[in-house]
Amino acid sequence: MGIINLLDLQTANLIAAGEVVERAASVVKELCENSIDAAAKNITVEIKHGGNSYIRVSDDGKGISEDDIPKTILRHATSKIKTGSDLEAIGTLGFRGEALAAVSSVARMTIISKQPTAKTGSMLEVNDEYGVVIKETGCPDGTTIIVRDLFYNVPARRKFMKRDATEAMAVAALTEKLAMSHPEIAFRLISDGETKFTTPGDGKLLSAIYGVAGRAFAAGLESVSYELEGMTLRGYISRPDAAKGTRSSQSFFINNRYIRSRTMTAALEEAYKSYIPSGRFPAAVLFLETSLSSVDVNVHPSKLEVRFSNEKNVFDTVYYGVRSVLEGGFKKAEPEEKPRSPLETQPWNFTPEIKAEEAKASTQEYKPLYDFSKLTEKAVLETMPNFAPNVNNSTDEAFKVEITTYNKAETADFDEAKTDEFAPESLVEAPTYRIVGELFATYAVVEVGESVSLIDKHAAHERIIYEKLRKSNKKHTQLLLEPLKLDFSPMEIELLIESKTYLESYGFVIKERDGALFLDGIPALLMQSGGDLHSLIGCFVSEVSKGMQIPIDVRADSALYSVACKAAIKAGKMLDGTQLDWIVQNVLNDTAIRFCPHGRPIIYTADKKSIEKLFNRT
C-alpha cells in the first residue's frame, strides 16, 4: 500500500502559512508590499492587541478588479510574474502568490477593493460560518484588507505568540522599514487607536527617517553617495559618537526592498572599526541599487534574505562608500535636503517642522575648531618630534637606518616643503590655544579660547600615525642598512606575501631571498616611534589573519590600526614641549583625528560657562 498522500488545499495552505505567516508583523509586511506594488501613494496600517486580534491595511492603489478578486486567495495566483524566466529579474516586492491564501487559512479575512474606472467595488470575506463570500460594495478607490483573530484555528501556533506589546513593537519596526524603503509613499501606523508615526510621502529619505525615528536620530545622520562597479550606495550613517548598543538601528535595502544581509552588515561595521569601540554599533539606513539580475530574492518565502551574484562587490561598495564619509570628517556628503516634519505634507492636520538650528546640529560638532588656512608645510623628518631614543644608539641592528628615500631616481627635484603630503604643519600665525600642561602623564590640557580640552596623547598619536600612514607612499620609506629576517610560520608568511603590494603602498619594503622573507624598509613615520620592528610586523600579521571572509585589502587596512597603536607613545610618558605641541596641533587641525583606531574618543572639551557653573560663578 502506498504511503504518499496528496494534501488537500486547506492543509497545503496551512503549511504555506507556517512559512509566510510567522506573526502579525509578517501579515503586515505581505499586505503592505502588495499595496506598494499596486502603486499606492498613501498606506495606513492599523492594529489592535499587537495585531493578534485585528489588522487593517488600506491603500489608494490600483485596486483589484471584480474578475480577479476571487483569485486572490488561491495559492500561486499572482499578477507579478507569468513564467519562470520572470524570476531572473524580479522588480516587485511580492511575486509568490501565497500571501493572501496563507493568511486566509489561519485568520478571518476581508478584502475590499475598487479600481478607479469601476463604478462599484467588490468585497470578499473568508470565515468559518459561510466560507468564501463575494459581493458588491461601495468603497473608495484602492484596497483595504482586514485580518481578524490571527491563528484562531491553529492553537499550536497561537500559544507561541508574544505579549501584545511585543507583537506591536514588531509590527512597528517592520512598518518603519517599509516606510523608509519608499519615501515617496505616505505611511501611517495606528496601534490601539494611537497614531505611532506618519511619513509625508514627499520622496525624501530624510523626511521618512525623521517620521519613523524622530528628530534627534535624523539630525545626527550624514549622507552617503557612492558608486562602484555598477552598484550605487546611498542613504545615511550615524556619527561615531552616536553609536548604539545594538544593531537595531541598522536598515539595509536592495533595490528599495528591505532585507537582512550579513555581507552589508559586516561591511558597515568593518568600515567603522577604527571609529567606534568594540561592543558599539553604527546606525545606518543604506540603499544598494544594482541590476535586478544580479540579486536573487527568491531565496526564502519571507523574502527578507537575498543572494547576490557577487558578494565581494556588495561588500566593497558598502565598505568604501561608508569609509569615504568617515575619512572625510563628515564634510564630503551633504544632506539631500533639510530634515522636515513627516506630517507637514500629510492629509492629516499636523504641521510641526524642524527649526533651522536643529538642521545645523548634525554638522556643527565636526567643524574645525580653528582656522588653520594660513599654515605652511615642512618636511616630516625636519619637524616631526622624536618620540624614541636616537636610533643610531639602539642595540637593535634593525634600527641602523640609512636616511634616504626609497627611489632616489624620483627625488632629484624633490621639494619636501612643497609636496610632502603627510608632513605636520607649522604655524605662520599661532592659533589661539595655550597648552597648560599634562594630566596624569596621559592627557594634554589645552586652553582654547573660551573652553578647555583634554587630549588623550596615546589615542591621538595612534590616530595621527594611522592617518599619515594612509596618506603615505614609497617616497617616505627608510631603508634598513641590515634587512630584518621575518621569522613567521608558513601560513603567516603567505599572508605577508598576499599583503605585500598593499604594505609597499604604505612604505614597507618586503623582499624574498633564498626562500626567506626580509623587511628591507619601513615608513619613515614609524622610525620616529622606535620599538621592535619584528613585533610591529607580527602585530600586522596577527590582525590580517582574522576574518578571512573579509577582502585582504580591508583586513590589511584594519591591521594598520594595531601597528599604529604599537608605534604610538604610551600613557604615563611625559613629553617635552615640542612633542606635546605637535600632537595638539595635529588634533586641532584635523577633524578626522577625533577617535583612535580602536574607536575611543581622543578629545573632550568643556566650555568656560560649564566650568563656572561648577563653582557657582554664573
Trace the largest sheet across and list its strands.
Answer: 5-4-3-6-2-1-7-8
Distance between the termini: 94 Å
Give start-end ranges of low-pLDDT stretches. Answer: 80-91, 332-384, 388-430
Task: Give the helix level as a range of percent.
Answer: 25-40%
- The CATH superfamily of the largest domain turns out to be MutL, C-terminal domain, dimerisation subdomain
Overall CATH architecture of the largest domain: 2-Layer Sandwich
Index terms:
618 residues; alpha+beta; Heat Shock Protein 90; Ribosomal Protein S5, domain 2; formyl-coa transferase, domain 3; 3 domains; 8-stranded mixed sheet; 5-stranded mixed sheet; 20 helices; 31% helix
3D architecture notes:
With 618 residues, this protein is α+β, with helices and mostly antiparallel strands. It folds into three domains: 9-198, Histidine kinase-like ATPase, C-terminal domain (Heat Shock Protein 90), CATH 3.30.565; 205-364, Ribosomal Protein S5, domain 2 (2-Layer Sandwich), CATH 3.30.230.10; 393-607, formyl-coa transferase, domain 3 (2-Layer Sandwich), CATH 3.30.1540.20. It is 31% helix and 22% strand. It contains 20 helices and 25 strands. An eight-stranded mixed β-sheet has the order 5-4-3-6-2-1-7-8. Strands 9-10-13-11-12 form a five-stranded mixed β-sheet, with helices on both faces. β7 and β8 (194-198) form a beta hairpin. α8 (262-271) runs parallel beside α9 (311-326). The radius of gyration is 31 Å and the shape is elongated. The termini are far apart. The model is unreliable at 80-91, 332-384 and 388-430 (pLDDT under 50).
